């Protein structure tokens, strides 16, 4: 199977996200899979599809430092990005890729791991979707379905500015921010930290494509974006800049909140599952779910599955065990997959909103 490889080089911050969003829109069942590679020429902050920006990002710092904020159609957490990351985004017709995210991650991460090892970095796949070197993270990945395409997004980490990352995130205090930076320094590693001499992006790409060929059983061929793809990328740029998309989770929260009445209580909670943080906003009426919003930095396939699940749970009793059973049933019926997030995790998060911890 041919793998079209489109390396856009350094592009604007917006285009570095729009290239894979746009090309995914052009994919149909008969398309060749595509690997998109790029780096942003200027820095920005990118938030996961299901995150609430006002809870995760220091918007004032971003405004003051001219850091745009873009929401991607891939799950995961908020991250500071710049030209020191080399993005890799696999875009496959859904019928040509594994159907479950739990199968996607190990398959598409393996060529990255092998490339790092060839460079002399002892990288390892760490479930559910991270790459570690001796216990320190050198990269994360995310999966998404966009129209008829399956997307697997990741990057090679040449270097990473932990100080700016810590400043971009919403934290309770400056003391906490200092601790966050120290934690990021201890927890993360990069090629600059691991190697005496870092490779050029051209050399890294050559090695990476060879491993893609062996692992994915494809024939990589360098290609150019077609006119149709370029038009789709331009459309994606417009959509990614739309405030209605950027702040979509905030709008959901407002819509949820205005429904409060005398006997209905809006509460919230957070629970850390292996697959990511789950944030809950719950309208509780007479010990039942009156309305529900689920957000966080997890991955969900299909992306709309989170809202479908929340809608399906309306009217369910807020009882331990019974609620988990209802969640599990709904996830199965809706074919919702949340890697590293179980029905019990979601139940724990929801019930935490019934009796919020001080």
Key traits:
358 residues, alpha+beta, BirA Bifunctional Protein, domain 2, Enolase-like, domain 1, 2 domains, three-stranded mixed sheet, 14 helices, 41% helix, 27% strand, globular
Write a compact overview of the structure shown:
The protein has helices at 13-26, 53-56, 59-64, 101-119, 162-168, 174-187, 191-194, 201-216, 227-241, 243-246, 248-257, 305-312, 322-334, 343-354, and strands spanning 2-11, 34-40, 44-47, 69-71, 79-81, 85-93, 123-126, 130-133, 136-140, 142-146, 149-157, 219-222, 265-273, 276-285, 288-296. It has 358 residues and is an alpha+beta fold.
Structural account:
Helix content is 41%, strand content 27%. A hairpin with a 2-residue loop joins strand 10 and strand 11. The strands form four sheets. Strands 10-11-6-2-1-12 form a six-stranded mixed sheet, sandwiched between helices. It contains 14 helices and 15 strands. It is α+β, with helices and mostly antiparallel strands. The longest helix is centred in the N-terminal third of the chain and has 19 residues.
């Amino acid at each position: 199977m041919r793998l079209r490889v489109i390396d856009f080089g350094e592009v604007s911050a917006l285009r570095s996200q729009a290239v894979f969003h746009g090309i995914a829109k052009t994919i149909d069942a008969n398309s060749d899979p595509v690997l998109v590679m790029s780096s942003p020429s200027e820095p920005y902050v990118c938030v996961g599809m299901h995150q609430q920006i006002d809870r995760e990002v220091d918007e004032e710092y971003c405004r003051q430092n001219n850091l745009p904020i873009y929401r991607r159609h891939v799950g995961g957490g908020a991250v500071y990005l710049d030209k020191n990351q080399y993005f890799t985004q696999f875009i496959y017709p859904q019928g040509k890729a594994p159907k479950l995210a739990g199968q996607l991650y190990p398959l598409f991460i393996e060529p990255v791991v092998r490339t790092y090892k060839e460079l002399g970095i002892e990288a390892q796949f760490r479930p559910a979707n991270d790459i570690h070197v001796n216990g320190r993270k050198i990269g994360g990945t995310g999966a998404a379905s966009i129209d008829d395409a399956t997307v697997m997004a990741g990057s090679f980490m040449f270097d990473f500015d932990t100080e700016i990352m810590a400043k971009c995130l919403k934290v309770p205090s400056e003391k906490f921010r200092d601790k966050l930076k120290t934690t990021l320094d201890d927890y993360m590693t990069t090629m600059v930290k691991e190697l005496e001499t870092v490779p050029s992006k051209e050399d890294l790409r050559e090695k990476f494509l060879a491993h893609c060929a062996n692992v994915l059983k494809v024939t990589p061929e360098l290609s150019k974006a077609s006119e149709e793809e370029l038009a789709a990328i331009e459309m994606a740029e417009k959509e990614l800049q739309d405030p209605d998309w950027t702040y979509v989770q905030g709008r959901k929260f407002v819509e949820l909140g205005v429904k409060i009445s005398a006997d209905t209580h809006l509460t919230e909670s957070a629970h850390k599952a292996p697959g990511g943080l789950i944030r809950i906003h719950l309208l509780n009426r007479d010990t039942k779910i009156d309305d529900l919003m689920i957000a966080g930095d997890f991955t969900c396939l299909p992306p709309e599955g989170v809202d479908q699940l929340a809608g399906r749970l309306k009217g369910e009793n807020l009882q331990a065990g019974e609620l988990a059973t209802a969640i599990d049933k709904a996830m199965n019926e809706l074919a919702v997959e949340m890697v590293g997030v179980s029905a019990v995790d979601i139940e724990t998060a929801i019930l935490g909103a019934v009796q919020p911890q001080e």
